[in-house]
Amino acid sequence: MQTECGHRFCKFCIERWLSDGKKKCPIDNEDLTVGKMFPDNFAKREILSMKVRCPNRKMGCNTCVELKHVEEHTESCPYHYQPCPNNCQSLVLRKDLEEHLQSECCKRNFICSFCKETMLFELYGDHEIICPARMVPCDLCKEDVMREKIVEHVATTCPHATVKCCFFLLGCHKEIKREKMEKHMKSNVQKHLQLMCCAFGEWDDVLTWPFRGKIVLSVLDQNPVADQRQHAVETLVSKPMLAAFQRPTTHRNHKGFGYMEYVPLEVLDNSTYVVNDTLILKAQVFPEV
Question: 106-110, 122-126, 196-200: lowest mean pLDDT where?
Answer without folding.
Answer: 196-200
